[in-house]
UniProtKB/TrEMBL annotation:
<dbReference type="GO" id="GO:0006352">
    <property type="term" value="P:DNA-templated transcription initiation"/>
</dbReference>
<dbReference type="GO" id="GO:0003700">
    <property type="term" value="F:DNA-binding transcription factor activity"/>
</dbReference>
<protein>
    <submittedName>
        <fullName>Sigma-70 region 2</fullName>
    </submittedName>
</protein>
<dbReference type="InterPro" id="IPR013325">
    <property type="entry name" value="RNA_pol_sigma_r2"/>
</dbReference>
Amino acid sequence: MIEKNYEEVKAIVHKCRKEYYLHLWEREDWDQEGMICLHELLESYPEFEEKKDKQFYIYFKTKFRNRILDAVRKQESYKRKLDRQTYEEVSEISHRLREGGLCLDDSYALQEMLKKYESGLGKEK
């Protein structure tokens, strides 16, 4: 039932998608947010279920745009600066990372060599 109702307001959602940019949101995310908004609107105003007049479309457009503007504000807020950074797989950028020391196996080999060297020091008299 919600899908049928959503088809009537889908154009409003996709027009907003062209007007606003939300990082990491794909088309399906916009559709999902539109369906949630429509569901909340129909829960608050059950009379729109039977009679979809001009006022219904105005309510939906206003409610959906406000919801998107809230998401844009959240995205752009200074406190959420880290949320805006793109995710990069470490294995893809490992060549750019500084090494902070020896790898575990190199460290183990070095420790073994030092023990062997130290044990040989006392025998040379």
